[in-house]
Design goal:
Elements lengths: L4 E5 L6 H14 L4 E5 L6 H5 L8 E4 L2 E5 L2 H16 L8 H11 L5 H15 L12 E5 L3 H36 L3 H4 L6 H20 L5 E8 L2 H16 L4 E9 L9 H18 L4 E5 L8 H7 L8
Parallel strand pairs: 1-5, 1-6, 2-4, 2-5, 6-7, 7-8
Antiparallel strand pairs: 3-4
Helix pairs in contact: 1-11, 3-4, 3-5, 5-6, 6-8
Length: 317
């Protein structure tokens, strides 16, 4: 079963871009309409496919499109959207102060993650059957290194809770205003329909929508890419714990750059160390499916090299 949302994550430098690009290419060649997305600040999709890819969706092949999400641009767009919503809801006397605060907030801690998540949900909607904007059957995400990606995937849970608390506080404030309106005519016109509550409600619904899909094993699979080395194995264990904590379905463990047995005497010692690590990987993660992708004799740049990886992904879902 091919999932609607396929994520490739793991420690930096393990080959996530090569495998996610090969998987996207394989699905597209099988007839599915596929969007390949990079959320890694160090974008490499363009290098992998050997074609120009930017922040606008571009078509690479008959069934394959790609885009590289620009976090800084997403943050500016995100803040501009907030500004457009809020300037009509606050007193004209504080509009300029609000704008200045929002401009500063665009570069504040967490702003890019929130904006990136917003762009991320927009892209997920492009493969959702219930969405009017549906254009693709599968979205393949080439993600940032593990820590950054886990923080991003935690946001629906964390921000959804935060949004619910804000809505509670807003309800309390409006209840007090309704009481006061009985004695103050000027307040009577302000306690009807609450546009701020509507905005908060829409945001919470958006987070809930994303969480439902990210935790649905029929829709989502998070494939972990690692190398047969001690540090990537340890990081994979930590990532697995976090993914399970937030209910995100884990797919396969893709062990990349496995040295072939016929590699020769020079690599024999390193191959021995890899063999021990491969045993450890099988013991720890084998129940979920482990794929081995050999270390190729070339850099993976361009469709021809991606095609060489495709046969090793046959058992991926």
């Amino acid at each position: 079963m091919i999932r609607r949302y396929c994520f490739f994550g793991g420690k930096g430098g393990t080959g996530k871009t090569s495998l996610s690009s090969s998987w996207a290419l394989k699905l597209a060649r099988s007839g599915r309409k596929v969007l390949a997305v990079s959320t890694d600040p160090a974008h490499s999709l363009a290098d992998a496919f050997g074609k120009a890819i930017g922040k606008q969706i571009v078509q690479l092949e008959p069934n394959l499109w790609a885009v590289e999400v620009d976090a800084a641009a997403a943050a500016q767009k995100y803040v501009a959207g907030i500004e457009a919503s809020m300037t009509s809801l606050v007193s004209p006397a504080i509009v300029e102060d609000l704008r200045q605060q929002l401009r500063v907030s665009a570069s504040s801690p967490g702003a890019e993650e929130s904006a990136l998540f917003d762009a991320f949900v927009d892209l997920m909607e492009l493969a959702d059957p219930s969405s009017e904007s549906k254009k693709f059957e599968t979205v393949v995400f080439d993600t940032a290194p593990t820590g950054h990606t886990l923080r991003l995937l935690e946001l629906p849970e964390l921000l959804g809770f935060w949004m619910s608390r804000l809505m509670e506080k807003r309800n309390q404030a409006m209840s007090l205003m309704r009481l006061a309106a009985a004695y103050e005519e000027d307040l009577a016109s302000k306690v009807g329909d609450d546009p701020i509550y509507r905005i908060l409600s829409r945001r919470r619904e958006r987070f809930e929508w994303a969480r439902e899909r990210l935790t649905d094993k029929e829709s989502t699979a998070f494939h972990i890419v690692l190398n047969a080395e001690r540090m990537p194995i340890l990081e994979t264990e930590r990532a697995l714990q976090q993914l399970e904590k937030f209910g995100i379905p884990v797919g396969a463990f893709c062990v990349n750059r496995v040295i072939p047995e016929e590699a020769g005497e020079f690599f024999a010692r390193h191959r021995g160390r890899q063999t021990e690590c491969l045993k450890t990987i099988q013991e720890k993660f084998g129940g979920r499916g482990v794929l081995q992708i050999p270390w190729l004799d070339c850099d993976v740049q361009g469709v021809a090299e991606l095609e060489r990886i495709i046969p090793y992904l046959e058992n991926l879902e």
